[in-house]
Design brief:
Chain lengths: 354, 342
C-alpha cells in the first residue's frame, strides 16, 4: 500500500512537468513577434519597441531557455528584479480581466466551487442509483427507459440543453434566471453590511442569516445544476450499469443467492460495493472537472466562474489568460487523479497487490 | 511416432458458419448482424442516411447565392431581431430551387425556419451545416485515427523504452481536459489561420488521438506474438513492412469501429467551440454557430424559440444517430456483454 502511494506520488512531478511542456509547446505555434504581444499591456508606438520586448523577454533565445524563464522567471535586465515564472505563482497579466491571471482565478474560483458543491450530490447520488436500478432490472421496462434516457442525454450537447431549459424556465416561466445573483441581491452582497466569508453566496447568505439572498442565489444555481446533472447522469448511468451487470454475473453473487440471502442484501452488500469500484474513478474525475470550471455550462448561463472566464479570454484571443486557466485546470485534474488512484487502492485490494 | 496429434480440422465445427461469416470473420460478422437486427441501430442508420442525403443534395435543397462560397449563410438585411418562420425574404433572395413551386406553391423565397439575429437564414444554415458536420467529423476522425495508429503501433511493436516514452506522452496529453485543451490550441491557432474552421479542427485533432493509440497498442501487443509475424520476420521482412503490412491490418478493426463511431462526438465538440465563438467566422454554415446567435436573445427565447429549436434539434439528432449505431456495435463487440446475455 505504502509503496503504491509512493510510486504514485513520484509520478506527480513528472505529470505536472509534462503539462507545462505541452502548454508551453503550444505557444511555439506563435512567432516571437506574436508572442511579444503576450507581454505588453499597451500598443507599442515607437520604432523598435517590439524588438526591444523580444530581447528583453528573451523570446529569441533557444526554446529550452525560454521554457526555463517561463517556469522560474528571469532577471529583468532593466530593473534587475526577478519577474515572471509560473512556479512563483506568476501566470502573467490578463488583458481581458485587467489584472494578474492568478488574481482573476482566485476571484472567479468561489463561483465555480459553489456550482460544483451544489451539483455534486445530485449528479453522483442519482446517477449511481439509476445505474444500479437499471442493472438490477436488466432488460425490463425501467432499464429500457433508462437506456433511452442515457443515450439521449449522452447525445445532447450541453449548450443545446442549456438553451432549451433557459427557454422554458427563464424565457417562458420566469422561474430561474441566468447569472449568479439578482441586481438587488448583488447590491446587498457587495455592501459593507454583508460579510463575505467564503465568497460562495449561498453559504455566506446562510452565515449572514439572509435567507432572501440564499434563495436568490439558489434560484440562479438551479438551471446550471440541472444541466450538469442530466448530462453527467447519462455517463454515470452507463458506467454503473455495465459494471453492475458484470458483477451480477459473478460466482460470488450466485453463491450469495444460493445460500438464501434476500435479494436486497445480495445487491446492497455483495454486488453494489464491488460494482462501484470503477465508478469511483469516474465520479472523482467528474468532481475535478466541475472544479476546473465547466466552460460551456457557465457560458450558457452567464455564470461568472472559471469556465466562462476562460471562454471569454479565448474569444478575445487573450492567450496568457487561457494558458493560466489551463494550467490551473490541469493541476486540479492531476491532483484529483492522484486522490482517485489512492482511493482506488484503498477500496480495491487487487490494485495494491499488483 | 505413435502419438499422432489431432489436427484441428478433424474436429467437427461447433456450429456451421455461413458464407458471410466466414468471409468477414466472426467478430466483424457479429458487429454487422447487430447493426441490422438491433432496432435502435436501424433507427440510427436511417437517420444517418437522411443526413447524408441532405448533405449531398445541399445545393439542390438550398441553392447558394454565391456558388463560390456556399458555406456562407445568406442574410436578409442586418436587423438584430429574429424573424419568424415563413416570413418573406425581402433582400437578395437566393435562387429558387426547382422543387420550390411544387412543394411550397408560391413564387418567392420565404424564411422556412425563420432568421436568427442578424437575419441569417436558419433553413440554409441547417442544410449546409449538415455538410460542415460531415466534413469536420470525417476530417477529424481520419486525422486522429492516423496519428493514433502510428503512435500506438510503434509503441506496441518496439516495446521497451519506446513504448514507455510514447505511452507516458499519451498520459500527459490525457491530463488536460479535452475541451479546455482544444480551447487553448484553437485560441493560439486563430491568429495563424485566421477565423475559419481550421483552428478548431486542428485543436480537436491535437487532443483527440490518444484513445486510439491506447486501443491499437493493446491489440497489437497480442497480435505481434502470433506465428505469422514470426514467419514474416524469419523471411527477413523489414520492421515497417511487418508492422504496416502484417500487424496493423490485423489489429485495426476494433479501433476503426470505435473511431468511426466518434464522428458524432467530434461534431459535437466542434459545434461547442463554434458556439463559444472560437474559430469559425460569423455566418459560416455550422450548427454551433447558428445556436450561438441565440445567446443575444436569452430572455426572449419564448418568442424566438425557433432560433434554438431547429439547429439544436438537428445537432442532437445527428449526434444521437451516431450514438445509436455506436451503442449497438459496442455491445456486440464487448466480450463482457456477451457472457451476460447468455
Amino acid at each position: 500500500m505504502t509503496t503504491y502511494i509512493i510510486r504514485r506520488l513520484l509520478l506527480l512531478p513528472f505529470l505536472l512537468f509534462g503539462v507545462t511542456v505541452i502548454i508551453f509547446g503550444m505557444l511555439q505555434f506563435l512567432s516571437p513577434v506574436e508572442r511579444s504581444a503576450l507581454y505588453v499591456r499597451e500598443i507599442p508606438h515607437t520604432e523598435g519597441a517590439v524588438e526591444g520586448i523580444i530581447k528583453r523577454y528573451g523570446l529569441d533565445k533557444p526554446i529550452y531557455v525560454q521554457y526555463w524563464y517561463w517556469l522560474v522567471g528571469r532577471i529583468d535586465p532593466v530593473t534587475g528584479g526577478r519577474v515572471g515564472g509560473i512556479l512563483r505563482g506568476d501566470l502573467g497579466y490578463s488583458r481581458v480581466g485587467s489584472q494578474p491571471v492568478a488574481k482573476l482565478i482566485a476571484q472567479r474560483f468561489p463561483a465555480t466551487a459553489e456550482l460544483a458543491l451544489w451539483a455534486v450530490v445530485p449528479i453522483i447520488g442519482v446517477g449511481i442509483w439509476l445505474g444500479v436500478q437499471s442493472a438490477v432490472r436488466h432488460n425490463r421496462f425501467f432499464d429500457q427507459v433508462a437506456r433511452v434516457f442515457s443515450i439521449v442525454g449522452w447525445s445532447f450537447p450541453t449548450f443545446v440543453f442549456g438553451l432549451l431549459v433557459l427557454m422554458i424556465f427563464y424565457a417562458r416561466l420566469r422561474w430561474f434566471p441566468p447569472g449568479r445573483l439578482s441586481d438587488w441581491a448583488s447590491a446587498i452582497v457587495n455592501s459593507g453590511q454583508f460579510h463575505q466569508y467564503t465568497h460562495m453566496y449561498t453559504i455566506d447568505a446562510l452565515l449572514n442569516l439572509r435567507f432572501d439572498i440564499f434563495w436568490d442565489a439558489l434560484k440562479h444555481l438551479i438551471l446550471p445544476v440541472m444541466t450538469l446533472s442530466y448530462l453527467n447522469w447519462a455517463l454515470l448511468l452507463r458506467v454503473t450499469r455495465s459494471s453492475m451487470l458484470e458483477v451480477l454475473g459473478q460466482d460470488y453473487v450466485r453463491t450469495a443467492r444460493a445460500k438464501g440471502l434476500p435479494e436486497r442484501l445480495v445487491i446492497n452488500r455483495h454486488a453494489r460495493p464491488n460494482a462501484l469500484i470503477p465508478v469511483v474513478t469516474l465520479a472523482g474525475l467528474m468532481v475535478a472537472g466541475l472544479l476546473g470550471g465547466v466552460v460551456i455550462t457557465e457560458t450558457v448561463f452567464n455564470y461568472p466562474g472559471i469556465g466562462s472566464a476562460a471562454a471569454q479570454a479565448a474569444i478575445q484571443l487573450d492567450v496568457v489568460t487561457v494558458l493560466g486557466f489551463a494550467l490551473f485546470n490541469g493541476t486540479i485534474l492531476i491532483l484529483a487523479n492522484l486522490i482517485v488512484d489512492i482511493l482506488y487502492a484503498v477500496i480495491d485490494p487487487r490494485v495494491r497487490l499488483e | 511416432m505413435q502419438n499422432r496429434s489431432v489436427h484441428p480440422s478433424e474436429f467437427p465445427p461447433l456450429r456451421e458458419l455461413n458464407r458471410l461469416e466466414r468471409l468477414l470473420g466472426p467478430d466483424n460478422y457479429r458487429a454487422l448482424r447487430a447493426l441490422v437486427t438491433t432496432p435502435t441501430a436501424i433507427l440510427g442508420l436511417i437517420l444517418l442516411a437522411i443526413f447524408a442525403i441532405v448533405a449531398i443534395a445541399a445545393p439542390v435543397i438550398a441553392p447558394p447565392t454565391n456558388p463560390r462560397d456556399p458555406y456562407r449563410i445568406p442574410r436578409d438585411g442586418f436587423s438584430p431581431d429574429p424573424r419568424p418562420m415563413g416570413s418573406e425574404w425581402k433582400r437578395n433572395p437566393p435562387p429558387l430551387p426547382f422543387w420550390w413551386k411544387f412543394v411550397m406553391k408560391r413564387e418567392h423565397w420565404i424564411h422556412i425556419l425563420g432568421t436568427a439575429s442578424g437575419q441569417w437564414d436558419i433553413f440554409y444554415g441547417v442544410i449546409w451545416g449538415t455538410r460542415t458536420a460531415f466534413r469536420v467529423g470525417i476530417a477529424i476522425t481520419m486525422a486522429t485515427l492516423i496519428i493514433g495508429v502510428i503512435v500506438g503501433s510503434i509503441a506496441a511493436y518496439y516495446g521497451g523504452i519506446v513504448d514507455n516514452i510514447l505511452m507516458r506522452l499519451v498520459d500527459i496529453f490525457l491530463t488536460l481536459p479535452f475541451l479546455m485543451a482544444a480551447l487553448i490550441l484553437a485560441t493560439i491557432l486563430v491568429p495563424r489561420f485566421g477565423k475559419s474552421i481550421y483552428p478548431a479542427i486542428i485543436a480537436l485533432i491535437g487532443f483527440g488521438w490518444m484513445g486510439y493509440a491506447r486501443l491499437i497498442r493493446g491489440d497489437i501487443l497480442s497480435i505481434k506474438e502470433r506465428e505469422y509475424i514470426l514467419a514474416a520476420r524469419a523471411v527477413g521482412a523489414r520492421d515497417y513492412r511487418i508492422l504496416f503490412r502484417h500487424i496493423v491490418p490485423n489489429a485495426i478493426f476494433p479501433t476503426l469501429v470505435v473511431a468511426s463511431m466518434d464522428i458524432g462526438s467530434y461534431v459535437l465538440s466542434f459545434a461547442a467551440l463554434a458556439f463559444l465563438g472560437i474559430g469559425v467566422e460569423i455566418g459560416y454554415a455550422d450548427w454551433g454557430q447558428l445556436l450561438s446567435f441565440a445567446r443575444n436573445w436569452i430572455s426572449s427565447l419564448a418568442e424566438y424559440w425557433y432560433i434554438v429549436v431547429w439547429p439544436g434539434l438537428t445537432l442532437v439528432l445527428f449526434v444521437l444517430a451516431w450514438n445509436l449505431v455506436g451503442d449497438a456495435l459496442r455491445d456486440a463487440l464487448d466480450p463482457r456483454m456477451r457472457t451476460i446475455k447468455r
